[in-house]
């Protein structure tokens, strides 16, 4: 009888495979009779109730949240976290860095601590970059993003990219914004609403409204911030026609939407269109009124500017400064000084713009004006002194430094003005 060797070999390999499966199903041999099985070890670990869990109820973290106010206390907490072995825990390190940035605003110290963390996460990076932004150091935030986050392969989250997009917009770097946008697409965050809104603003600030519109049109979900960012971008880039198209397509508008369009028409001097929009507004705030007053002030329409100023239900320092500068440009020095007197009597605190207008009007007025209200009650005397040095004594600080091309007062007038105000 002939034997099929091929079939015989396959049957032998099948038998070996079945035997090996039977051997695998058997438990491993015990070295000692009292050794626990792996199932018993897993069950013991899972049922262990005294294993420490790290949350805000931990005593060290409670002390961190409640009593840390200076660098000495922070160093003590840092020492306790290091000795207890908790500083390398992502949650503990994140809370420590967040508290340090919030209380002492010591970004450099946070970066030093970050370098000693073995496994940092996106929350730590976002906290430190936000601290750089808060201290007006966008370049430091961008440098940290590339050198400390990307270089260490820390995965970003949906909070990272809006922050980096804001940094790129603040420094006006289109190239960096495009690079970050490419990473957004790579990591799959291009459909995130907050990320998309941040890049609409970034491209608009950099003057690329076409790219901003592309991001706007590719969004399946849009909110009021998306529409307002697109309108604001068109307005600030001088494309009022496209901004008005977006404005007319909106179903829901807020006060920022109306103010953006009004400021756009004011910027190009079209006060008729601005006034028509102003009259259609369902509600107005002080910014809306200031836009109209400033628009008429730009075209030197004193009567209409004064009319809107008098009709304002609520004023701020900007409202008064617009009128003071208008009277100064129109050489109505007496009205400028009278308005400043009304301003300080109304308990408004003048700022540098107010003081420049009133001091310039005082120098150009025939008889130097003496306010019936002491400015020391409303303004820091050092601010007055610095402005006097620039306006009254041109041999030390020329008037051109404040862009006031007028001659200085005489020595007699200087003494009268200084004695009357100081």
From TrEMBL:
It comes from the Eukaryota. InterPro entries: PPR_At4g14850-like_plant, PPR_rpt, TPR-like_helical_dom_sf. GO terms for molecular function: RNA binding. It comes from Salix udensis. It holds the Pfam family PPR_2. PPR repeats lie at residues 223-253, 254-288, 316-350. Gene3D superfamilies: Tetratricopeptide repeat domain. GO terms for biological process: RNA modification; system development. The keyword Repeat applies. This is Uncharacterized protein. Keywords: Repeat.
């Amino acid at each position: 009888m002939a034997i099929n060797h091929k079939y015989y070999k396959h049957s032998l390999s099948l038998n070996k495979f079945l035997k090996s499966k039977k051997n695998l199903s058997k438990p491993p041999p015990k070295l000692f009779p009292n050794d626990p099985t792996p199932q018993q070890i897993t069950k013991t670990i899972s049922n262990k109730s005294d294993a420490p869990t790290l949350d805000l109820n931990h005593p060290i973290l409670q002390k961190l949240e409640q009593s840390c106010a200076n660098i000495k206390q922070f160093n003590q907490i840092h020492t306790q976290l290091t000795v207890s072995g908790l500083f390398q825990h992502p949650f503990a390190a994140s809370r420590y860095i967040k508290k340090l940035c919030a209380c002492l605003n010591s970004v450099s110290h946070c970066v030093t601590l970050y370098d000693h963390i073995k496994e940092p996460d996106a929350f730590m990076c976002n906290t430190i970059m936000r601290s750089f932004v808060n201290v007006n150091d966008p370049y430091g935030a961008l440098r940290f993003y590339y050198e400390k986050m990307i270089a260490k392969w820390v995965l970003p989250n949906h909070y990272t990219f809006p922050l980096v997009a804001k940094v790129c917009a603040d420094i006006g770097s289109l190239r960096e914004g495009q690079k970050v946008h490419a990473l957004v697409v790579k990591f799959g965050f291009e459909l995130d609403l907050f990320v998309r809104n941040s890049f609409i603003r970034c491209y608009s600030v950099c003057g690329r409204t076409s790219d901003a519109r592309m991001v706007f049109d590719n969004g399946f979900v849009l909110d009021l911030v998306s529409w307002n960012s697109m309108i604001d971008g068109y307005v600030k880039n001088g494309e009022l026609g496209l901004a008005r198209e977006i404005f007319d397509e909106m179903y829901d508008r807020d006060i920022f939407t109306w103010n953006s369009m009004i400021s756009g028409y004011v910027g190009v001097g079209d006060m008729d269109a601005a006034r028509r929009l102003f009259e259609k507004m369902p509600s107005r705030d002080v910014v809306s009124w200031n836009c109209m007053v400033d628009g008429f002030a730009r075209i030197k329409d004193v009567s209409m500017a004064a009319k809107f100023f008098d009709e304002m239900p609520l004023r701020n320092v900007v409202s008064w400064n617009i009128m003071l500068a208008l009277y100064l440009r129109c050489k109505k020095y007496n009205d400028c000084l009278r308005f400043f007197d009304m301003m300080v009597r109304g308990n408004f605190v003048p700022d540098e713009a107010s003081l420049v207008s009133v001091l310039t009007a005082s120098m150009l007025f025939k008889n130097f004006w003496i306010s019936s209200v002491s400015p020391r009650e409303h303004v820091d005397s050092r601010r007055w002194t610095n402005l006097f040095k620039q306006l009254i004594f041109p041999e030390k600080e020329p008037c051109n430094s404040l862009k006031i091309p007028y001659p200085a007062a005489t020595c007699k007038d200087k003494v009268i003005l200084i004695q009357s105000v100081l």
